[in-house]
Amino acid sequence: MATEEENLGNVKRQLAKLFEGSLRAVVPDEQDVEPMIAASTGKFVGDYQCNNAMRIFSKIKGRDPQLRNPASVGQAIVEHLPPSDIIESCSVAGAGFVNVVLSKTWMAKNIQSMLIGGIENWAPQLAIKRAVVDFSSPNIAKEMHVGHLRSTIIGDTLSRMLEFSNVEVLRRNHVGDWGTQFGMLIEFLFENFPNSEDVSETAVGDLQTFYKASKQRFDNDAAFKERAQRAVVLLQGGQPEYRKAWAQICEISRKEFDRVYQRLGVQLEEKGESFYNPYIPAVLKELSDQGLIEESQGARVIFLEGFNIPLIVVKSDGGYNYASTDLAALWYRLNEEKAEWIIYVTDVGQQQHFDMFFKAARRAGWLPADANLYPRVSHVGFGLVLGEDGKRFRTRNTEVVRLVDLLDEAKSRSKAALIERGKAEEWTEEELEKTAEAVGYGAVKYADLKNNRLTNYTFDFDQMLNDKGNTAVYLLYAHARICSIIRKSGKDIVELKKTGVIVLDHAGERDLALHLLQFSEIVEEACTNLLPNVLCEYLYNLSEIFTKKFYSNCQVVGSPEETSRLLLCEATAVVMRKCFHLLGIVPVYKI
Ligand code: ARG
C-alpha cells in the first residue's frame, strides 16, 4: 500500500499540503485554516487555484495593515509558499485567487513514475479499512428487475473503486429470502412435487410463474391458505422438511441470479435476510432496554423525530419485517464484521426506510451523531429505468423484462454490428464473441453509470450501442486505436518505459498530461461521494482531450518526439483501462 509520501497521484492533496504551510505563516493566529484547492475552471490561467484569500480577509479584516484587501492576502499566500518542484509559477487574480501553474518537468516525472510503478501509485487514500456494500439484493421467487440491474451495476462499481483504494469490501447480496410468502411457495411445491427428489430448476420452471400460480391458489382456496400459514410457522421453527423445500426454492432463484452476475462479471456474497433472522430478538431487546421501542396499535414501533409515521419493528401479528431485519443486519455489520462504512444501493423509493432506520441506529448510539464520521452508513439511491416511450421500462410482449434476455440482446446486437464491419472475416470466432460481450455488456453498464444516478434514465439499445458520442462503444474503440498506434510504431513499450523520457513542450501534450494527473483525485471524489458518473465524465474527457488536443496536433510515429509521445499514448491507455476496470467494463485492444 502506498504511504502518503509515496502517493504522487493526488495533485490536489500535494498542493494542499504546500498551501497549508503557507496559510499557517500568513495567519498564524487562525487555527486550522483548511486549504481550498480546486482544479482551474479555465477562467484564469493556471492549472489549479487556491481560493482561501477571500475568506481569510473577511475573518481578519483590519487586524493586519499589510493585508488590506483579498488580493494582498493572495499575494502573501504566494510569498509564503515553501519551495517545491511541483509548482512552476503562481499569480494572483481577481479577488485574491492564487493561480498555480504546475511544473512541466514534475508533471512528466510523475507520469513516468506511474508508468514504471503501476497505476496503483495513483490509488486514492481513504480513512477506512473495511466497508460493506449491500447491492443487487433481488427477492427469491419474485422478479429480478431492471432496478436490481441498476443496483448490481452501481454497487459493483462502488465496490471496485473502494477496493482500488485499498479498502476491504464485503460485497453483500441481501436477498429477500425470508417472509410469509414462503409458506405459500412451500405448500405449492409440496402439492406439485410430492416427491422432493423431483424438484429441479427444469421441473419447476420459471419461478415467477410458479409464484403467481401459488398466489392464486392462496387467494382462492381457504384450506390451502391455512396450510400455507402453518407452513410459515413450521419453516421458522426449523422443521427439516420445510427448511429443505425453502432451500430448494432459494437454489432455483439463485441459479437465475447467477446467470446475470456471470454475464456482468460481478462478484457477490449472498447473505440474505434469513441470515440475520436469529439476531433480531437480541437486537430488539437492546433497543427496547434503551427505551426506544414502544407499543402502538398492537405493533412494536420506534417513533422518530421528523417522521410522521413510526418505524415498525414487530408487526401486530408478532412477525418481524424489513426494518427489523435491516436493524439486525446493521448491528451485525458493525459489531461482527467491523465494517466502518456500510453502503446500501437501492432505488430512491426506499429512501425513507433507510433514513428512518439510520436514525434509529443513531439514537441507539450505534453511529456517531455526525453522519460524516465513521462508522458511517450511506444510502445510494437511484432513479427509474424508462423505456423509449418514457414510461417504466418493459419489453414489448411480456410484462416483465428478463435480465438475462436483455443482456443477451445487448451482446447479439453488438455482435451484429461487428459482423457488419467485416470482423467475422478478420477475427476468430472467439475474438468475435469476446469483443461482442465486452462491448454489449459494457454498453449497458456505461449507459447506466454515466448519468447522475438520482435521475431516471432511458434504456435505449440504439443509443448505448452507438459508436459516436458518450458511449462505451466509442470509448472502447478509442482505447483500441491508442493501442494500435503503439503497436504500429513497432517499438518495445516496456523498454521505452525504462529508458525514454517524457517531454511536455507542446500545449497538446501538456493538456493531456494534466488530465492524466487528475485521475487520482477524480476517483477519490467519485468514491467518497458515491458518484460513478464523475468517473465516466473523466474518462470521456480523457478520450476527447487525447484525440482533439493531443493526437490531432502532435504527430506521434516518425516524429522527433516519438518516444515521449508513445509514452503519453501508453499512459493514456493505462489510465483508460483502469477507468474501464473500475466501471466493470472489459477493455478491447483491437477493433
Ligand atoms: N430486496 C430489496 C428489494 O428488492 C432490496 C434490499 C436492499 N438491502 C437492504 N439491506 N435493505 O427491494
UniProtKB/TrEMBL annotation:
Domain Arginyl tRNA synthetase N-terminal, residue spans: 13-102
UniProt GO MF annotations: arginine-tRNA ligase activity; ATP binding
GO biological process: arginyl-tRNA aminoacylation; post-embryonic development; reproductive structure development
Catalysis: reaction(s): tRNA(Arg) + L-arginine + ATP = L-arginyl-tRNA(Arg) + AMP + diphosphate
Record domain DALR anticodon binding: where: 475-591
Family annotation (Pfam families): Arg_tRNA_synt_N, DALR_1, tRNA-synt_1d
GO cellular component, one term: cytoplasm
The entry's keywords: Aminoacyl-tRNA synthetase, ATP-binding, Ligase, Nucleotide-binding, Protein biosynthesis
Highest taxon listed in the record's lineage: Eukaryota
Statement: the UniProt record of this protein carries the keyword Cell membrane: no
EC number from the UniProt entry: 6.1.1.19
PANTHER family: ARGININE--TRNA LIGASE, CYTOPLASMIC (PTHR11956:SF5), ARGINYL-TRNA SYNTHETASE (PTHR11956)
Family: Belongs to the class-I aminoacyl-tRNA synthetase family.
Descriptive protein name: arginine--tRNA ligase
Organism: Ziziphus jujuba (Chinese jujube)
